[in-house]
Amino acid sequence: MSTTGNQGRLWAISEVTKRTPRTIGNGHKASDYFGCNTFTAKVMAEKLPKAVYKSLLKTIKSGHKLDQSIAPAVAHAVKEWAIEKGATHYTHWFQPNTGITAEKHDTFLTIDGDGQAIERFDASQLIQSEPDASSFPSGGLRATFEARGYTAWDPSTPIFIMESPNGKTLCIPSVFISYYGQVLDKKTPLLRSDEYLCQNALKVLSLFGSKATRVFSTLGPEQEYFLIDEAFYALRPDLVSTGRTLIGAKPPKGQELEDQYFGSIKARVLAFMQEFEHELFKLGVPVKTRHNEVAPAQFETAPIFESVSVATDHNQLTMDLLRQVAKRHNLAFLIHEKPFAGINGSGKHNNWSMATDDGENLLEPGATPEKNLQFLVFLLATLKGVYRHQGALRAAIAGSGNDHRLGANEAPPAIISAFLGQALTKILDNIEAGKLKGATSEKQVIALGISKLPEIAKDNTDRNRTSPFAFTGNKFEFRAVASSASTATPMATLNAAVGEALSEMATRLSASLKKTSDFDKAVMDVIKEYVVETKAIRFEGNGYSDEWREEAAKRGLLNLAKTPESLAQLKTKEVKTLFTKSGVYKADELESRYHLELERYIKDLEIEVAALKEIVNTAVLPAAFKHQAQIAGSVAALAAVGLDGDALATQKAEVASVAELIAALKSALTGLDHALEKAETDNLEKKASAFAYGVSEAMAAVREVCDKLELVVEDGLWPLPKYREMLFLF
Ligand code: ADP
Ligand code: MG
């Protein structure tokens, strides 16, 4: 009896068909328990002396430095609260350069002088902790200094409690810095960028007579992801090691019928969504929207927006909990940008705006012409920042996974451009044309349509899904961010770029205001200059088209297909100046970021190559050989009974075609080895490029043959779950 290769697949299919939705009880009113596991202002008010409470709130709301003298009282209150809730351990929860979060738990338990066990947590434990920094990526920073790093409490995000089946842990959101104060994490640059944006936005606002004392960026990240049954996942070594399928033939039905987007949500998946939302509500994460995405087995969740720092932490928690809760539902959570070839990949649309402490959204068109002048000023400063720093922004979204979206023929393209929509475009075009020269500024404002801008906010009809950076009425949507990435780096880059543009804007507005006593005219003059200066970054057409590539090249826009050349932008004078001037990265910090991201890219691809070779040698080739042997056996049997002529020739040709595919696969593997040899060098940049092009192409060649084999090898011999099974069986 010949051995079959698909027992695993059959087992998985049988598991999947038996699954039922997991129930966690009927829904409770979310507002009853929202934030119950967070140390909220309400808890603080209850637990802290009034003066301490006020001082802490000031630190949280306005970014004031923490008054160290209140730390003991805060630590005491936090401990009381956490222990009442059943926490036994605490951890500084931080975001090292791995892109995910890190934690090292310590128990509250100590043994006092009399040998008594008691729970203790003091100010120093709240404020600072010293994990061993040497095992986190630092991009060479520690080589020049020393291996010490410490985490420091960042009070801008509420302290929270994580539940797990056998206990609870108090988590203290923290930043991670070296002993000498250099960043070792993703969060610190983000906090610095928000501060820089604040200072410069206030300069502009003061010219408009605003009383705001703080400006901060806001973020609502739409998170896309895939789910497949964990039984299939367990049988795909490529998914387990790399997060994406390295081989897999296109299923007969993919996303062609467009029947998945916003379709009714399958019961098992809905049960999963309800449970993770329940968990996130407890942690004070305001998840708002859930729906099916375009690709089969692809979904999205989006929160109500928050300040960029809190939203970034909450997105990390979201990704973490999605993974954990999926497991409870026997689902595997896939956060990779391109888990399946041939169907849409996943992104994280970063909806971004700027808001004042008195609640004004600075990208919201206003009710009056004056407010709308201010709106245009902030809009144009954003365009200016994005135009000038397209390179830094492209670098901020680079990574091995995103190369499959941005560099390939998929939304959004690698060219950074901004979409404004018809209504705004018309207004900017009119301003540029300057038809109204000589008219009073009031008449101009009316004739240009500026007095009635609020309609734009409602005009969501002309959405452009191909733009990497689209204005959507009262915010921009940075769509090119990778689904698995932390939002910290892209948002820090955007904040820095726009902060710089606002600084320049303030200077130019001040100069213009000196020339005339007509405020509107002075502002309009500057707006007009900016409209002209930023025209090249505006694009309303189809971002996937070849015409756009050509047009963008003519406009001098960057088109960086892959990670190595995108990261190289971090070494340009422009980018260095932006980051050092804004204080977001010091020169050595930026250099270390460049190195560690380049290294990460190479490592990602090395892992993919190893996984691909393993899967080909241990799964694909053995199946192909068995299949070949079966047909050869049948041919031999035919010959043995004396049948020859056409019948035999046809079947011989069948064996020959399988044999040819096997030979082609072998030769593609040799090609991969050659490409790897060529890529071997100590020069990181050369190595990364060789992986991005030579090695990637060689991998694609291997895949091509594997996918052909998948479509001819007997189904009973194929060991790997197929696309149609992973994507459609729930
Ligand atoms: P879409 O049609 O793109 O789904 P939504 O209005 O549902 O648009 O918003 C998508 C995301 O944008 C949500 O997470 C929402 O909270 C966020 N968002 C809305 N306004 C802002 C803002 N001012 N700043 C940042 N994010 C925002
Ligand atoms: Mg959106």
Overview of this protein structure:
There is one protein chain. The protein is an alpha+beta fold. Among the domains are: 34-185, Ubiquitin-like (UB roll); 602-728, Four Helix Bundle (Hemerythrin (Met), subunit A). Helix content is 51%, strand content 12%. It has 27 helices and 17 strands. The strands form three sheets. Strands 9, 10, 11, 12, 13, 14, 15, 16 and 17 form a nine-stranded mixed β-sheet that branches. Strands 1, 2, 5, 6, 7 and 8 form a six-stranded mixed β-sheet that branches. Strands 3-4 form a two-stranded antiparallel ribbon. The longest helix is centred in the last third of the chain and has 54 residues, at 587-640. Magnesium ion (MG) is lined by residues 222, 349, 477.
Keywords:
730 residues, Ubiquitin-like (UB roll), Four Helix Bundle (Hemerythrin (Met), subunit A), globular, alpha+beta, binds adenosine-5'-diphosphate
**Under the CATH scheme, which class of the domain at 34-185?**
Alpha Beta
Instruction: Tell me about the largest β-sheet.
Output: 9 strands, mixed
Indicate the CATH topology of the domain at 34-185.
Ubiquitin-like (UB roll)
User: Which ions and ligands are bound to the chains?
Assistant: adenosine-5'-diphosphate, magnesium ion
Q: Structural class of the secondary structure composition? A: alpha+beta
